[in-house]
Amino acid sequence: MKTAIVWFKTDLRITDNETLVKAISQNDTIIPVYCFEDSHFETTSFGFQKTGSFRAQFLIESLLDLDNSLRELGSGLLILKGKPEVEIPKMVKQYKAHRVYVKREVAFEEKQTESLVQTELWKLQCELLTFSTSTLYHAEDLPFSIKDIPDVFTNFRKKTEKDAVIRKSFDKPKKVNSPEISRPILPTIAALGIDEVTIDHRAVIQFKGGESEALKRLNHYFFETKSISKYKETRNGMIGADYSSKFSAWLALGCIAPRFIYSELKKYESQFGANESTYWLVFELLWRDYFRFMMKKQQNKIFLKSGIQNKDLSINKFDKALLQKWINGQTGVDFVDANMIELRLTGFMSNRGRQNVASYFCNDLKLDWRYGASYFEQQLIDYDVCSNWGNWAYLAGVGNDPRGNRYFNIEKQAADYDKNKAYRDLWLNH
Ligand SMILES: Cc1cc2nc3c(=O)[nH]c(=O)nc-3n(C[C@H](O)[C@H](O)[C@H](O)COP(=O)(O)OP(=O)(O)OC[C@H]3O[C@@H](n4cnc5c(N)ncnc54)[C@H](O)[C@@H]3O)c2cc1C
Hints:
This protein is α/β, with parallel strands linked by helices. It folds into three domains: 1-133, Rossmann fold, CATH 3.40.50; 135-166 and 211-303, Alpha Horseshoe (Serine Threonine Protein Phosphatase 5, Tetratricopeptide repeat), CATH 1.25.40.80; 304-428, DNA Cyclobutane Dipyrimidine Photolyase, subunit A, domain 3 (Orthogonal Bundle), CATH 1.10.579. 47% of the residues lie in helices and 7% in strands. The chain has helices at 18-26, 53-72, 84-95, 108-123, 153-163, 211-224, 231-234, 248-252, 258-272, 276-298, 320-328, 334-346, 351-364, 369-379, 385-395, 410-417, 422-428, and strands at 3-8, 29-37, 78-82, 99-103, 127-131. Strands 3-2-1-4-5 form a five-stranded parallel β-sheet, with helices on both faces. Helix 3 (84-95) packs parallel to helix 4 (108-123) and helix 12 crosses helix 17 (422-428). The mean pLDDT is 96. The structure holds flavin-adenine dinucleotide. The site of flavin-adenine dinucleotide has 29 residues, from helix 8, helix 10, helix 13 and helix 15.
């Protein structure tokens, strides 16, 4: 009898999950596991938690939902805690598994962990099979090899849209054969060393983790409200649930897959019509892909202060007092402050806000951009290593931007995007 472990990471879903589908079809029994990795709950060299309260809560909700979905299929989720290179091999021994199926990583630390696990598994003659499941376009279908991916997004997008095809998404499995798996006991937020918080009532949305919630959100944004049909006009908004999709948090933990979103979008378009707005969501998902492929191409260069451009940023320093003012929303620039308060109290900030506070951080405060990125890593409910560090590097002028420097004139931005100060009032005067 062939037994395999399915190691869930940031792919906490059963629909369109190739890793799970392949494991089921190639084995008699599978053991789904998730490991709370010690390193995810440490403090970074920049002094921030790697996982903050909002995301930790979202993660726990997502795992409970995944366990429920697996249970409906006859299985369940085993929860581990510690170092994956120790915990995963333990499971392999206990269940006499011959393979471990897992999502393929691209970022530096995640790849290191993957390789440590692989080394330990080889000692047990157990194979590690990895699957690329988090992008819209599959890396193997791109019209260039990873090393030749253009350093300018538009060049990447145009050729990819012309020459590559988006694969079909995988159906949800009908059954999962597993031995009896008892209901998991998840660590509490406190046990993870994190403070408990509740999302402020002014938040754009009360995010709740899990695939079921992701599907509800998609249904709401597409079919119930048809908000997607005006996305291009509303996407620069800052207040309310529907100016943008808010898919990011679920995408980041893999509660929903971009290819599944795409297939639902095609259904929507065939029913209600395609327009610039429906296309624009695909355009944004392509940005997400791009940052992931760039991480694969540039590897740890994206995390360096000098970035992929090897630029001298010696005038950008660490200044604890300025950093703290920025975090607290006490810079005195109301548009920046309102956004930073939203982030601190909800774990979310609009794309418009993110661009402005990051530009202000790098260009006006002249701080070392990596501290800003690291604070975002702690704080964002939708933190994604590639999108976060890629966007920050871009705004700091050391990433993938042909124009070199993205300076945002904050006053003008506030006047354009928060004309009657409704956003600033919401966060500064309530
Ligand atoms: C400094 C900075 C840091 C960021 N950090 C993150 C992060 O950690 N995680 C994250 O998911 N996004 C990040 N973004 C990108 C973007 O701000 C968010 O994806 C978006 O605001 C999420 O809201 P939404 O889902 O409603 O987006 P929508 O406008 O509805 O877009 C749909 C989806 O497209 C993708 N997307 C949109 N814009 C971008 C972009 N610029 N880069 C990459 N993907 C994009 C996201 O997956 C998003 O969910 C960052 C942007 C900046 C400027």
